[in-house]
Every structure is written in structure tokens, then in C-alpha cells.
Amino acid sequence: MAWPCAGFGTAGSIDLSAGIDVQDRPKDAWANYAVTSPPVVAGDVLVVGSSIGDNRGHALEQGVVRGYDARSGRELWRWDPVPRAPAAA
Question: What residues does the Pyrrolo-quinoline quinone repeat domain cover (predicted)?
Fold first, then answer.
């Protein structure tokens, strides 16, 4: 199968679960992590949000917003809307 954007990510796609920190279960058990809406392209950046179910434990994946290079699929940045360090609040 030929992908329309073979140079994007890996064979035309990116793994949105890559890099998610899952500390209390196997790496393939993503629990309640989900991308709940389509990404948006802002300039040359593909912006992807996520949703998590955070009522099951304390060491869970974080619902970060990520930015990817729209041409290559390379992750450019992550933004966590919830301050994790007391000094960041």
C-alpha cells in the first residue's frame, strides 16, 4: 500500500501513543488515553490534544497537548496544561 505522504513520520503515519509515560502497567496497556478530536494544523505544526481517564490511580499517563512538524511528523513540543511542580503553579 502506498501512503500519500510517505516522508511523514514512519511510512506516512505517527504513533500518538509513543512517548506516553505509563508507570503502573505494561507499555501496551494504554488504559483511558484517547485522542478525542481531530488535530489542527497551525502554520507548519500539527497540534494534537488528548483525553485521559484520571480517576483510577496516581501514576497515569498525562493528557498533554503535542505539536508535530506537519511535513516530517517529528514531535516538536509537548505542553501539559496541569502544573506538576508547586513552583509552576
Answer: 4-86
CA dihedral over 22, 26, 28, 30, signed as positive or negative: negative
pLDDT digits (tens, 9 = 90+) for 23-71: 555 555 555 677 778 889 999 999 998 777 666 655 556 678 889 998 8
Q: What is the pTM of this model?
A: 0.65
In-domain check, residue 89 = no
Number of H helices, E strands in the chain: 0, 4
Which amino acid is residue 72, in one-letter code?
A: S
Starting at the edge strand that comes first in sequence, how are the strands of the sheet with 75-79 ordered?
40-42, 45-48, 65-69, 75-79
CA atoms of 51 and 39, how far apart (whole Å): 13
